[in-house]
């Protein structure tokens, strides 16, 4: 299973970024997918996940109301729209497939760096 993450970068506080995770059609249509992040010196933490049909979505409390996860069925991608970014959102963001609850995933993509300046 290959997951290709893209869209990270440097943005000022209050700004927006959109992350994208491209998967194969088979993966996209068969497993719950999501995003995790890991800040320097901290453990990796759950950000958001979306069910196969998109009818069940979960967010970490820290991003509720600011981040939106959604499926792009034309591109077989799971995107994370991040608005109102804060310096504490700075982390390496990882795409995941086969997400179980808010702690485990069967497959991981490479990370993409998000840096929010104050």
Task: Describe the protein in words.
The protein contains one helix and ten strands; from the N terminus they run βββαβββββββ. It is mainly beta. The strands form two sheets. A six-stranded mixed β-sheet has the order 2-10-9-4-5-6, with no helix packed on it. The model has no long low-confidence stretch (mean pLDDT 97). A hairpin with a 4-residue loop joins β7 and β8 (77-82). Helices cover 3% and strands 49% of the residues.
Q: Can you count the helices?
A: 1
Computed CA radius of gyration, to the nearest angstrom:
13 Å
Oligomer: single chain
Widest β-sheet, arrangement of strands: 2-10-9-4-5-6
Helix content: under 10%
Mean pLDDT: 97
Coarse structural class = mainly beta
Q: How do the SSEs run, as a string of H and E?
A: EEEHEEEEEEE
Count of individual beta strands: 10
Largest sheet: 6 strands, mixed
Shape assignment: globular
Give the strand content.
over 45%
Distance between the termini: 37 Å
Low-confidence stretches: none
Keywords:
118 residues; mainly beta; 4-stranded antiparallel beta sheet
In short:
The protein has one helix at 25-28; strands at 4-6, 9-12, 17-22, 33-38, 45-50, 57-59, 67-72, 77-82, 91-97, 107-117. It has 118 residues and is mainly beta.
Q: How would you summarize the topology of this molecule?
A:
Layout: E1 4-6, E2 9-12, E3 17-22, H1 25-28, E4 33-38, E5 45-50, E6 57-59, E7 67-72, E8 77-82, E9 91-97, E10 107-117
Parallel strand pairs: 2-10
Antiparallel strand pairs: 1-3, 3-8, 4-5, 4-9, 5-6, 7-8, 9-10
